[in-house]
From TrEMBL:
One of its GO terms (molecular function) is hydrolase activity. Residues 100-262 form the Fumarylacetoacetase-like C-terminal domain. The keyword Hydrolase applies. The keyword Ribonucleoprotein does not apply. This is Fumarylacetoacetate hydrolase family protein. Keywords: Hydrolase, Lyase. It comes from the Bacteria. InterPro entries: Fumarylacetoacetase-like_C (IPR011234), Fumarylacetoacetase_C_sf (IPR036663), Hydratase-Decarb/MhpD_sf (IPR050772).
C-alpha cells in the first residue's frame, strides 16, 4: 500500500517512511530521525507505526498487546519529549527471560522496568478511567522492556518515536502474576545492573498511577478506532530512565508485590 498524505508543506509517503524504519531494524543500523527531512503530524506518525506493524504481521508475527511510552517524568526528561505515546507489542518481541539476549540482533539496546497489565476484557475509549482498567485486568506482573530506537543516539521527536513503534524491540516478564492491587501507585521498584542499584521508583512515577497510563492508551487509541483487547499485555511505561544493555550484563528489577525479573545479554 502506498499513500501520500499532505502534512504541513510536505507530501508524506507513509509506506516509504515505514520502509526506512523496517530496513534499519533489519540491517541493525541506526538512521536519522524521519523529522530530519519530513514534517510529520502525530496522526501521520501513527499511520507509519501501523504500516510498520503490518509488515511485522505479514512476516508472521501477531499483536499481543500494547505499550505506553514516555509516561514517567524520568523518561520524558531523559528523552527530551514531554508527551506520552502508545505503540503495540508483537509475538516476536516477547523474550524468554532465561535466554540471554543476543546483542547482534539489536542496534543499541537499553532496558527499563515496567509494570505490565494482563487484560481479561476489552478497553475501548473514550471515557476509560483507571478504575475501568483495574476492573478489566486479570493480573499484573513485573516486566523489563528492551528498547532499541532505530534512530541515531536515541534522538527523536514525539512523532519520530511514534512512527518507530516507541523504540520497541523485546521484553521479558517476571513469573509472578498477581491480582491487581487497588493502588499501584505505591508499588516500589529497584533497578540493578550487575548487582548494583542504579535507580528506584514507585508506580506513581507513571502518570501518577500505571492504571491511569493504560486508561490514557485506551482513550487515545480509541480516537483512532483502536482498542485494547482481552488477553493482551499492556506495558505501562518505563518507571525510570532506561539503562544500556551491554555484553555480559545482568539487569534486574525488584518490585514490591510483583517479585523480580532479570535479563541477561551475551
Ligand atoms: C521511547 C520509548 C519509551 C517507555 O517505556 O517510556 C518507552 C524511548 O525511550 O526510546 O518504551
Ligand atoms: Mg517502555
Amino acid at each position: 500500500m502506498s499513500s501520500n498524505l499532505q502534512d504541513g508543506t510536505t507530501a508524506v509517503n507513509i509506506h516509504d517512511l515505514a520502509s526506512r524504519l523496517i530496513a534499519a531494524e533489519d540491517a541493525r543500523t541506526d538512521i536519522l530521525p524521519l523529522s530530519y527531512d519530513v514534517e510529520l503530524s502525530v496522526d501521520n506518525a501513527y499511520r507509519i507505526q501501523s504500516e510498520v506493524l503490518l509488515t511485522k504481521e505479514e512476516r508472521g508475527e501477531h499483536i499481543i498487546g500494547g505499550k505506553l511510552g514516555l509516561t514517567s517524568r524520568a523518561k520524558q526528561i531523559d528523552m527530551n519529549v514531554d508527551n506520552p505515546l502508545y505503540a503495540f507489542v508483537t509475538s516476536g518481541m516477547l523474550h524468554d527471560a532465561t535466554t540471554p539476549v543476543n546483542l547482534s540482533r539489536l542496534i543499541h539496546p537499553r532496558v527499563e522496568p515496567e509494570i505490565v497489565f494482563v487484560l481479561k476484557e476489552e478497553l475501548s475509549g473514550p471515557g476509560i478511567t483507571a478504575g475501568d482498567v483495574l476492573d478489566a485486568t486479570s493480573s499484573v506482573c513485573a516486566g523489563l522492556e528492551i528498547i532499541d530506537s532505530r534512530y541515531q543516539a536515541f534522538k527523536f521527536t514525539l512523532q519520530d518515536a511514534v512512527a518507530d513503534n516507541a523504540s520497541s524491540a523485546l521484553f521479558v516478564l517476571g513469573n509472578e502474576f498477581v491480582d491487581p492491587p487497588k493502588d499501584l501507585s505505591l508499588l516500589g521498584c529497584v533497578l540493578e545492573v550487575n548487582g548494583k542499584q542504579v535507580a528506584t521508583a514507585a508506580g506513581a512515577a507513571v502518570c501518577g498511577d500505571p492504571a491511569q497510563a493504560v486508561a490514557w492508551m485506551a482513550n487515545a487509541a480509541g480516537q483512532r478506532g483502536g482498542s485494547l483487547k482481552p488477553g493482551w499485555l499492556v506495558l505501562s511505561g518505563g518507571l525510570t530512565a532506561a539503562v544500556p544493555l551491554r555484553s555480559g550484563d545482568c539487569i534486574s528489577a525488584d518490585f514490591s508485590r510483583l517479585g523480580s525479573v532479570s535479563v541477561r545479554a551475551q
